[in-house]
Specification:
Largest sheet: 7 strands, mixed
CATH superfamily: Hexapeptide repeat proteins
Distance between the termini: 50 Å
Shape: elongated
Strand content: 15-25%
Helix content: 25-40%
CATH topology: UDP N-Acetylglucosamine Acyltransferase, domain 1
Radius of gyration: 23 Å
Number of domains: 1
Length: 252
């Protein structure tokens, strides 16, 4: 996926300076649109660690692209020290990335992030093992990754998808999908969701990390229905909620 990268150009001149100022303004506006706690652009510019990490990433990425990799890593480690966010200078990041809170976010060397994505605290875009080449995830545009989610390996999360908080994603996620669980399962694709009673979703809930259908709840309910049916056929009296079963030592 080819993305227009936001980097600090090493060239000089009014045109280059104007481009950078405009890009920074777009980043501030993107955060203001998505964070209800943001009071002003000044507050975001001065106090948001995710914004600071992105500014330092641009500088590090520019150095990395010029072949000054040691200097690039030094800048990225300095950003990690001050913000708690580690972005490898080799990563490719599109416009409008919002890193909310940000502490513990890790973005690997070959990760690719599309435009207008949102990452919450504790998110990892990491690799597995010691593979070389492309070994980190690719996120499409408008992807939301919930707090503590881990995306490990070389796969693609399609545009418009949501990864629930705490999920561990190890394989491709289609566009406009919702993935939940460990390992993550896709529970919604293109507006069609798995039958999970009680789950709610509205067009305004794209950043909602609570009202996401849980596939494990559905499976447990199905198991309970099967057990109740077996008890009925065998003529067994159903267990009450306060009944307990003592282990018989068989390990089963």
């Amino acid at each position: 996926m080819e993305k227009k990268r936001l980097t600090v150009r090493l060239s000089s001149g009014p045109a280059a300076v104007y481009r950078e100022i405009r890009a920074i303004g777009e980043e501030l506006d993107s955060i203001m649109e998505r964070d209800p706690a943001a009071i002003s652009r000044t507050e975001v510019a001065l106090l948001y660690s995710g914004f600071h990490a992105l500014l330092m990433y641009r500088a590090a990425h520019a150095l990395h692209e010029k072949g000054w990799k040691m200097s690039a890593r030094a800048v990225s480690q300095l950003a990690k020290f001050f913000t708690g966010i580690e972005i490898h200078p080799g990563a490719s990041i599109g416009r409008g990335l919002f890193i909310d809170h940000g502490t513990g976010v890790v973005i690997g060397e070959t990760a690719v992030i599309g435009d207008n994505c949102t990452l919450y605290q504790g998110v990892t875009l990491g690799g597995t093992g010691k593979q070389t080449g492309k070994r980190h995830p690719t996120l499409g545009d408008n992807v939301m990754v919930g707090a503590g989610a881990k995306l490990l390996g070389n796969f693609t999360v399609g545009s418009g998808s949501r990864i629930a908080a705490g999920a561990v994603v190890l394989a491709d996620v289609p566009e406009n999908a919702t993935a939940v669980g460990v390992p993550a399962k896709v529970v919604r694709v293109a507006g069609k969701r798995v039958e999970t009673p009680g789950a709610k979703h509205t067009p305004s809930s794209d950043l909602d990390q609570v009202n996401i259908p849980n596939p494990y709840d559905s499976e447990i309910r199905q198991l309970r229905r099967h057990i109740a049916l077996l008890e009925e056929r065998l003529g067994l009296e159903p267990l009450r909620e306060d009944d307990t079963i003592e282990p018989d030592g068989s390990g089963i």
